[in-house]
Amino acid sequence: MQALRRPGGSVSVGELGEFGLIAGILARLPQGASSLLGPGDDAAVVRATDGRVVVSTDLMLEGRHFRRDWSSGRDVGHKLAAANLADIVAMGATPTALVVGLACPADTAVDWVNDFADGLREECALVGASVVGGDVSRADVIMLSATALGDLAGVPPVTRAGARAGDAVAVAGRLGHAAAGITVLTRGFRSPRMLVEAHRRPQPPYAAGPQAAAVGATAMCDVSDGLLADASHLADASGVSIDLRSGAFPVPEPMANAANALGHDALRWILTGGDDHALLATFAPAVPLPAGWIRVGEVLEAGEDGPAVTVDGGPYDGPQGHDHFAR
Amino acid sequence: MQALRRPGGSVSVGELGEFGLIAGILARLPQGASSLLGPGDDAAVVRATDGRVVVSTDLMLEGRHFRRDWSSGRDVGHKLAAANLADIVAMGATPTALVVGLACPADTAVDWVNDFADGLREECALVGASVVGGDVSRADVIMLSATALGDLAGVPPVTRAGARAGDAVAVAGRLGHAAAGITVLTRGFRSPRMLVEAHRRPQPPYAAGPQAAAVGATAMCDVSDGLLADASHLADASGVSIDLRSGAFPVPEPMANAANALGHDALRWILTGGDDHALLATFAPAVPLPAGWIRVGEVLEAGEDGPAVTVDGGPYDGPQGHDHFAR
Question: A115: annotated binding-site residue?
Fold first, then answer.
């Protein structure tokens, strides 16, 4: 194993070699209480006390989901873990473990990879989970995968399919912040910092998922494609329509300012921006919303044309979400 | 959603769009008995009756782990699932579920992706598992990730760390076949078919893992980096040395013929080739080996220089394994 210094002072992944790289990563990943057998064997063993395990997987690609000049390795570690952990809490479960795939060019700085591992660890620690295993390979750009596991602790999973006419529609967490951050960065700015940071490190409302499950949320999902698109997925799965009230969404001052400065519509960021990993859920009318949830609309019977999502009673005029293969 | 025909007659992923692509994939993936909630929600829910879940993840990249002119989509589906499921049985567990990430160029033929899904389904069916979820994205080359889950059914996991001096060393499954297949393909040949097929679709000895666990195998691992490299990992984890007997390894006639024709050493394929996903395990001396296992060596006390792997009592002269970042 060689550990030569590059001119810039940092060692590259190719210089360190696969096994040295893995050893360095593992030293940064302490094992949590749910990890019965951590990294280093063919597979890990994770506690699944409930007798069921919740599982979700995500890919993140350099140039598509992040740019190294906009986000540090640590930001990317936070973001990858957050995206994946949010899917677990969106079922009403508590995350227990993450496994991660990392493919990168041989000239990637080892420091970047170590920062990435730090970000993973820090984000997992917010929910008491840990990184229990992974795989590394070489690629022309950085390609990341993560799979999160979670525990339902005896409650039924909250799917997208249980919303009923008359239910309240509510959200927890930020909306439109990451999308506004991307717009700001794309225009060459680095502020407002709050929005740029929201793109770099989403802040999913982790506690809100299990709390919604505990009070009997009828349906729930993670907002990753944009609120209108994800509300539409939930409406389709439940066979209902959803009407959102545009006035219900708080617009923080930095977002209002950025919208003004850039000639953008803040409501569009809120309704169509993904990547904040807010939660969207429906609750029976009599249920008081748990802390952190705000009511933003109502579930209606599906109309003659089937399930639909409207804003203030009418169709929203604009792009509704994200297709990864759209040009 | 558009479904235009390309000149060649097949629809591309970009033409079909993300949601149409996913719908087509899901139609090919029936859910097994362990899938309590399959694809389509934020996360899946998988039975984990044992109260623990075994988890392992792998990446596979076009140009590095497979080539589209050498392997069909179906081959690649088989190979990705096999690599991942083998890690689960190497712990002594039975696979229950797979989640898969697929990133591909917009001009990828939808037929390729559907074939890939068919391969995943067919390989999972061999062990009673199913694909319960996934993620799709766009990339410049095909990048795949898979995470497999498994159930230990009440037995302790068989790690790499339990081998003791005096134990028998045994293997189950093929060795060197996939490596010989790559050599054959690299030299521009397409036969012997048995070797080329072994590269395209490994045949891990799935039943042999839980069977070894049932008779109390002291240590076990999947042979993915090459027998010498993986034996070395097992020896290091157990703090022992391992001596292999070169005469113990059967050399099938097509491999002997290919070695002759290409001026290659068949034993080197067997000792250093990965990707067949054979199993390597150690058993207490008195234990009769389960069906399918052959004895290939012995566990020794580690020497003064620490754990080592020898062949016929001496060091093996040649490259020992695979570093993903080696040039």
Answer: no
